[in-house]
Amino acid sequence: MQAQPTRIADVDALRGCALFGILVVNIGAFATPWFGLGLTDPAFHGSVDRATHFLVALLFETKFYLLFSFLFGYSFTLQMQAAARAGAPFVPRMLRRQAGLWLIGALHAVFLFHGDILTTYALLGIVLLALHRCGERQALSLALILVAVCVAFWAGMAWLQSLQPAGDAADNAVAMARKVAAALAAYHATPAAVIAQHLRELSEIWIVLLLVQAPCALAMFLCGLAAGKREMLLHASDYLPLRRHLLWAGALAGLPGAAFYAWTSVYGDSQAWQVAGLAVGLASAPLLAGAYLALALALFERLRDGTLFALLADTGRMALSNYLLQSAICAVLFLAYGARLMGSVSPLGALALAVIIFGLQLPLSRWWLRGHAYGPVEWLLRALTIAAWPRWRRAAYL
């Protein structure tokens, strides 16, 4: 009988890091209905509130979902290897996996969080499936083109926005304030009202997903695919020069671009500047995400035998379950499913809650994986992928 392949612990630990960054951003969307609108929440506009928002925008927004996207593309090559070991046709297997991921994401979007990324990943995964045979150079070139086109589009939108009369912008702000008030009332009302509000927002948010997240996520899928074909994370020490280049690129270009994005998001006095900041942020975010990757790998080499690395790896092993659990906890805290805290928690309070939630997920993941082979949602997705029931309990080894 063929032995089970050893998991790449660095991949799992990187997923754990990405989960924390995603939670820091997503909890902001639960905490205030003003999130992502380019307007300051009137209830939290003090210096500490703005500084916290600036910090989150600088270090987290638009970066960690790209890191997760890179890992999605890298894991695609691991799925290819798994199918080859099992002697199973790869394409039908992946189509089942993407269909299952889309269904899970759709349920997540309707009931818990309208900012779901899973449905986007599922659809883009089909595109990646069509491109998975392309060479590494082709994949990286296409990734660069996707980011460049996306950045150029938003730069053009910033220019068009600068031509808008000031009166129109003021009217838009008034209309936005009314919309936010209606959303807050719905999120505080009943669970049925929450679901209805999610459906309303999903009918509008697709344009943001299509024009912001999708191109950049696909670009990082392709970067991860190229890295996976070279097994870079399995032999990370062989790529020290590349990792140094990533750190320098992140420090010299990624961080200044992120600072411009954060400044225009928090302190910008016009929508044109905010859109221009978004364009710069989209251009620099992959560089900063690459620097995070390189920095994390360097830290892992020092922490590999420690408890923190093991906890991060366990949390990343069940990343899908933990991502959904984060949304479930936030939905209970902030929406009509539970405490209805939306609109009453400061940005600093939301950041503290994110740290607490993730801190609880670390030991919870370790506890679960002591007795189970997979996270609960990972088990379900694997069953759909291989069209068979995988083992539920963790095998005991002597």
From TrEMBL:
Residues 228-386 form the DUF418 domain. InterPro entries: Bact_Transport_Assoc, DUF418. The chain crosses the membrane at residues 12-35, 55-78, 99-132, 138-160, 180-199, 205-225, 246-263, 275-300, 320-339, 345-364. Pfam families: DUF418. Keywords: Membrane, Transmembrane, Transmembrane helix. This is DUF418 domain-containing protein. It comes from Janthinobacterium kumbetense. The lineage of its organism: Bacteria, Pseudomonadati, Pseudomonadota, Betaproteobacteria, Burkholderiales.
